[in-house]
């Protein structure tokens, strides 16, 4: 069976550094930090007082008040990003077979805000079980996919993927595979997360996973830096329209990039820490390369997982060197979480867009705030410190890894006829 080619025909973004794709990319290239003091709740008693929150977002600009109340913020973010992506794709739904359009949407946690508020209400109400009838449908992590399909009438495959911070790259790989197997012609995919709340910040803080650098919160997300002390939690959504190449060509769609291949693996090592030698990360990248039929030296840029955790950054660089050998020194590597923060289940989709746009514009966004490279990291690697770098990017690889040892890698490349 000959596999079909898959391309990207639409993008949508709602991020801490831009509420649309244009602003997101411009600020990413400019090294703008999305980190600021938290405004969503009172942090007086919290160890960490900052995060990468969405700015200037009013759900009532997008939803009727009654409809907004039925949606957890993570689902609101999803619908807003998808709206941009659908419009960007130029799809004329009345001319397409919507039975052949699917939705695979990711979230690592789902409706944590809803869960938190409902339990707080239960406790304040003397433990009388007066829960909202929308509690469960607002909270579950697959409901965003359902809302998207209902809004647009998409009747193709429809589900959510959950693999912690690898969730949305899992969604992209699933979408890629279904389309190239001929199961449908278009899939709306990506991920969203809304966990900047008491439970999210408190939970990650208790694990000592997030930065507590309150004095330097603007630059606290500093992957690869010797002074890094954890990730900066973020929120938002990234949406991509993946489409079968001939289908896209027939309708005259603009094409951002072609999906080269995807790879997945498990560390099979620890609940939250990566394998210290990066074995699972190596496997995911090797499998993505094998799936794409590409050689290591054909990759020009890697958007690494790069969370700025003390235990996470070093193994990933070891994995890159293991897979790419001497070519590792000829590539650009950057961690865009230095600007967006860590969007958890939405990270893969947002970082995939960074990889795609790097191939479109031949610009590699920087690893912002990288002042002093950890001595455990090979100084010969080009980590794109502080400023974006111009170079031809024919192909880019994006890594995302998650608690539980989930590893995903996906490759995007310039379209060749």
Written description of the protein model:
The protein is α/β, with parallel strands linked by helices. It is built from 13 helices and 14 strands. The strands form 3 sheets. Strands 5-4-6-7-1-8-14-13-9-10 form a 10-stranded mixed sheet, with helices on both faces. It has a two-stranded antiparallel sheet with strand order 2-3. Strand 9 (301-303), helix 11 (313-324) and strand 10 (332-334) form a beta-alpha-beta unit. The model has no long low-confidence stretch (mean pLDDT 97).
CATH homologous superfamily label of the largest domain: Thiolase/Chalcone synthase
CATH-defined fold name of the largest domain:
Peroxisomal Thiolase, Chain A, domain 1
Distance between the termini: 21 Å
| Spans of at least 5 consecutive residues with low confidence | none
Could you state the oligomeric state of the chains shown?
Answer: single chain
The coarse overall form would be: globular
Counting DSSP H or I runs of 4 or more residues, the number of helices is 13
Q: Please indicate the percent range of residues in DSSP E strands (runs of 2 or more).
A: 15-25%
Radius of gyration: 20 Å
CATH class of the largest domain: Alpha Beta
């Amino acid at each position: 069976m000959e596999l079909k080619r898959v391309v990207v025909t639409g993008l949508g973004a709602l991020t801490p550094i831009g509420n649309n794709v244009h602003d997101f990319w411009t600020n990413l290239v400019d090294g703008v930090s999305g980190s600021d003091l938290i405004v969503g709740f009172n942090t007086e008693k919290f160890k960490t007082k900052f995060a990468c929150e969405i700015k200037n977002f009013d759900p009532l600009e997008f939803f009727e008040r009654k409809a907004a109340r039925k949606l957890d913020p993570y689902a609101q973010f999803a619908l807003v990003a998808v709206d941009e992506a659908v419009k960007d794709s130029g799809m004329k739904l009345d001319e397409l077979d919507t039975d052949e359009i699917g939705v695979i949407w990711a979230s690592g946690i789902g409706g944590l805000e809803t869960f938190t508020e409902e339990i707080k209400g239960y406790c304040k109400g003397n433990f009388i079980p007066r829960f909202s009838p929308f509690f469960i449908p607002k909270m579950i992590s697959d409901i965003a996919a359902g809302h998207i399909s209902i809004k647009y009438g998409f009747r193709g495959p429809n589900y959510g993927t959950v693999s912690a911070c690898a969730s949305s790259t899992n969604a992209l790989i699933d979408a890629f595979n279904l389309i190239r197997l001929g199961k449908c012609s278009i899939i709306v995919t990506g991920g969203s997360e809304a966990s900047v709340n008491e439970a999210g910040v408190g939970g990650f803080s208790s694990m000592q996973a997030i930065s507590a650098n309150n004095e330097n919160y603007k630059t606290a997300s500093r992957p690869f830096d010797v002074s890094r002390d954890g990730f900066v939690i973020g929120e938002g959504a990234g949406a991509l329209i993946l489409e079968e190449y001939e289908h896209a060509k027939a309708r005259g769609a603009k094409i951002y990039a072609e999906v080269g291949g995807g790879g997945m693996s498990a560390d099979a090592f620890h609940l939250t820490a990566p394998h210290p030698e990066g074995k699972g990360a190596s496997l995911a990248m090797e499998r993505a390369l094998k799936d794409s039929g590409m050689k290591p030296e054909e990759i020009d840029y890697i958007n690494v997982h790069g969370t700025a955790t003390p235990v996470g950054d070093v193994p990933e660089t070891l994995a890159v060197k293991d897979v790419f050998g001497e070519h590792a020194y000829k590539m650009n590597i950057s961690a865009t979480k230095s600007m967006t923060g860590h969007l958890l289940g939405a990270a893969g989709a947002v970082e995939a867009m960074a990889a795609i746009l790097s191939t479109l514009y031949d610009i590699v966004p920087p690893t912002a705030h990288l002042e002093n490279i950890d001595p455990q990291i090979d100084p010969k690697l080009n980590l794109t410190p502080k400023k974006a770098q111009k170079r031809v990017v024919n192909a880019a690889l994006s890594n995302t890894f998650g608690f539980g040892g989930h590893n995903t890698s996906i490759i995007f490349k310039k379209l060749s006829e």
